[in-house]
Specification:
The structure holds two protein chains of two kinds.
Chain A (H helix, E strand, L loop, with lengths): L6 H10 L8 H14 L38 E6 L2 E2 L6 H7 L1 E2 L8 H4 L2 H4 L2 E2 L4 E2 L2 H9 L2 E7 L9 E6 L5 E8 L4 E7 L5 E8 L4 E8 L5 E10 L4 E9 L3 E10 L5 E10 L4 E10 L5 E10 L4 E10 L7 E10 L5 E10 L5 E9 L3 H9 L4 H17 L5 H20 L1
Parallel strand pairs in A: 1-7, 6-8, 7-9, 8-10, 9-11, 10-12, 11-13, 12-14, 13-15, 14-16, 15-17, 16-18, 17-19, 18-20, 19-21
Antiparallel strand pairs in A: 1-2, 3-6, 4-5
Helix pairs in contact in A: 2-6, 7-8, 8-9
Chain B lengths: L1 E10 L2 E14 L4 E5 L6 H9 L4 E10 L2 E2 L5 H6 L2 E4 L6 E5 H15 L7 H14 L4 H5 L1 E2 L5 H15 L3 E5 L7 H14 L5 E5 L4 H5 L4 E6 L2 E6 L2 H9 L2 H7 L1
Parallel strand pairs in B: 3-10, 3-11, 6-9, 9-10
Antiparallel strand pairs in B: 1-2, 1-4, 4-5, 7-8, 11-12
Classes of the chains: A alpha/beta, B alpha/beta.
The structure holds adenosine-5'-diphosphate and magnesium ion.
Chain lengths: ~425, ~250
């Protein structure tokens, strides 16, 4: 009798023969073995209750909708990946290589410290370890990506923009080391990646700002971001997700040095049958760190938002300041929000809080605006913009804030027109 | 200008709560009508039904503004048609800047009427002048709508909106509540500046004192969802002196 076919195993075996698979072969094997031991999670698995992925296969198409690239006009070091491979002609690899250290196909010595950080750090709660199947799949299967080191003290003059295009269900990876006192901004956009995996190390006193526009994904995208934040370092990540049929963003941050700062924010706009899941895990391992999670969901039709956010504070991480808020505005009765906030604290002198709300737009405020002549849809757009703005304000750069505001406005305008 | 006939309403989700029980009222252009009456008599409800707030169901009667039936209009359409309600409790809207709000409202109304939208420089000039008249600081204009405003500041902000939007019929619901004497003077001045032949006012108040500043042409007493008495300014003075008991007793 034949063993039941496992499409992911077949995909991995086939991929192993490719050139791309040779880099990090050992890590890839280990990652795939971790994935394969459990397979795709089911609704019974912790952190997968609301997000059905059991049927996701390696040949899942990655169509784009007709939204424009939110970052098209941003002056950036662009890395365009088409069908899982860098399009060198449209990319600024050489330009970036002049100011930062960009690894080649064989990697670079410094990468060892970053690479595999993810697999070395699965989510270890007090009770048990949580699998990260898409992070493992990404590590096993990534066909291309960027590995970049921002040298100590360098303030990168413009953002790095990773752009995902094409129709193939690609797996793309980022390895990034922001050395002591350096600073950089990282942008991501495009539908042409089924999974993305990022490992970033933000060393002492360094700053990394990350902004992801998931506005073109028509079907599925799974992202895994792992960041390790050093002392006095700052990391801010923001995701604007809109409309994808199934989007899951996992962000895991380790506050590894004292006085570090880690912010995760998201704006989520859902319509149709979209399901958008932001799952966040912040581990405080050093004292005097601050972390913030600000998630704002705007859900129409029968769309669903999921937020799972955990603040984990180790015994020695005294004086931790952890904050988490997740809020949803439901624009229709069929929309849904599932929140799972968690605190797990082993230090005794900390300040941690979380809150979650869900409901319709404020009727009284809507009436007030309308009574002054503002039509309903426009009034709703004003209140939605105000609602999402609390998350947008977490973005460090004001120009980038405005890009996100415009995308939110465009989404509401399209809704009003539809 | 505003003609209300036999207006009946009840709560939308509780048909047993009948609030307006046959209101008849006509406000002519150029006139100020005051409505007084005890708490709970339905004054605010009348203002909400006229401006189109959800939650009330009109079961009988009609209301027209300049001959147009307003009860079937959306609230924003009523505003564009010239109706303005200064709220008893102005609403705080976190995250929406006062300036943006005012400009959006003004231009939405202009657009609805087929007029040209007002450009930013012209608007800025206009709003600065009006704000100064009402002693509204530039800082208040920058803040989110009514957020952190004192009671008096909120009421002044209502009058600012009114003078910017230049409505045809102004309904003021307890605009005097929560105002000290100076603020009341300021607000009254703002209202009086808007008085002209083409504009009608419906001033809802619990107390006579506002009517010392905004002199009414006609005074109505409302009780239990109806206008029970109508008279001249002297009716307000009578209420001030004797309370509602006499009037209500006579009407019953
Ligand atoms: N949304 C509502 N839900 C329940 N009761 C209401 C509502 N609106 C008005 N009422 C009731 O209707 C009556 C009239 O209220 P209101 O119009 O506010 O009176 P006034 O402004 O004259 O003080 C009161 O008994 C009030 O409790
Ligand atoms: Mg009232």
């Amino acid at each position: 009798m034949d063993a039941p076919t496992n499409p992911w195993r077949d995909a991995f075996e086939a991929f192993k023969a490719s050139d791309a698979a040779q880099m990090g072969a050992t890590a890839r094997d280990a990652a795939f073995a971790r994935f394969d031991a459990h397979g795709m999670p089911s609704k019974r698995d912790e952190y997968w209750k609301y997000t059905p992925v059991r049927d996701v296969t390696p040949d899942t198409p990655v169509p784009a909708n007709n939204a424009a690239d939110a970052f098209a006009d941003v002056d950036a070091y662009r890395f365009v990946f088409v069908d899982g491979h860098l399009d060198a002609a449209r990319s600024d690899r050489d330009a970036l290589a002049k100011v930062a250290d960009v690894a080649d196909e064989k990697g670079a010595p410094w990468m060892d410290g970053v690479f595999n950080a993810l697999q070395a750090q699965p989510i270890i709660g007090a009770q048990k370890q949580v699998e990260r199947p898409f992070a493992d799949l990404n590590l096993a299967l990534f066909s291309d990506g960027l590995a970049v080191r921002i040298p100590a003290g360098t303030a990168l003059d413009k953002p790095i923009h990773l752009r995902y295009e094409g129709n193939r269900p690609a797996h793309l990876r980022l390895e990034m080391l922001v050395e002591k006192g350096a600073s950089a901004t990282l942008l991501e956009s495009g539908a042409g990646a089924l999974t993305t995996g990022a490992e970033v190390v933000v060393e002492d006193g360094a700053t990394l700002n990350h902004l992801r526009a998931q506005t073109e994904v028509a079907d599925k995208q799974f992202t895994a971001l792992y960041a390790k934040i050093g002392a006095e370092a700052q990391f801010k990540t923001f995701t604007l997700a809109a409309d994808g049929a199934l989007i899951r963003n996992e962000t895991q941050i380790t506050m590894a040095g004292e006085n570090g700062n880690g912010h995760i924010a998201a704006g989520v706009m859902g319509r149709g049958k979209a399901l958008i899941d932001n799952t966040v895990y912040i581990s405080h391992e050093a004292a005097h760190c601050e972390s913030r999670q600000v998630v704002k969901n705007v859900m129409d039709d029968e769309s669903k938002a999921v937020f799972q956010g955990k603040i984990y504070v180790k015994k020695d991480a005294q004086k931790t300041d952890g904050y988490q808020i997740s809020q949803s505005v439901l624009l229709s009765e069929g929309a849904e929000f599932n929140a799972k906030p968690e605190l797990e604290i082993y230090a005794d002198d900390v300040m941690c809080s979380h809150g979650s709300t869900t409901g319709a737009l404020d009727e009284t405020a809507l009436f007030y605006l309308r009574s002054r002549g503002v039509p309903l849809k426009e009034a709703e757009a004003m209140l939605v913009a105000a609602f999402v703005d609390e998350a947008i304000l977490e973005i460090a750069d004001e120009g980038l804030q405005d890009i996100v505001r415009k995308a939110v406005d465009a989404w509401m305008a399209e809704r009003a027109a539809g | 200008m505003l003609k209300i006939e036999n207006l009946h309403c009840q709560l939308e989700d509780d048909a047993d709560t009948k609030i307006l029980k046959g209101v008849d009222l006509e406000v002519e252009a150029g006139k100020v009508h005051a409505i007084m009456g005890p708490n709970g008599s339905g004054k605010s409800t009348l203002s909400y039904v006229l401006s189109g707030r959800d939650g009330y169901e009109v079961t009988d009667g009609s209301a027209t503004l300049l001959g147009e039936d307003i009860l079937d209009m959306e609230p924003d359409e009523r505003a564009a048609a010239g109706l303005f309600l200064a709220f008893q409790y102005p609403v705080e809207i976190p995250g929406v800047g006062n300036m943006i709000f005012l400009r959006t409202a003004l231009n939405a109304q202009r657009k609805a009427r087929g007029e040209e939208e007002m450009g930013a420089p012209e608007f800025l000039k206009l709003v600065r002048a009006k704000a100064a008249e009402l002693d509204i600081s530039p800082d208040m204009m920058k803040r989110p709508v009514n957020v952190g405003f004192s009671g008096g500041e909120k009421k002044r902000n209502e009058i600012l909106q009114m003078s910017l939007l230049q409505p045809k019929l102004c309904i003021l619901d307890e605009t005097d509540s929560g105002l000290d004497v100076d603020a009341m003077k300021l607000v009254s001045k703002g209202v009086n500046a808007l008085r002209d032949e083409g504009r009608g006012f419906l001033v809802i108040t619990h107390y006579q004192r506002l009517l010392d500043h905004i002199k009414p042409d006609v005074v109505h007493i409302m009780a239990a969802g109806k206008i029970v008495q109508t008279g001249g300014p002297e009716l307000a003075l009578e209420v001030e002196k004797n309370g509602y008991a006499d009037i209500l007793g006579a009407a019953a």
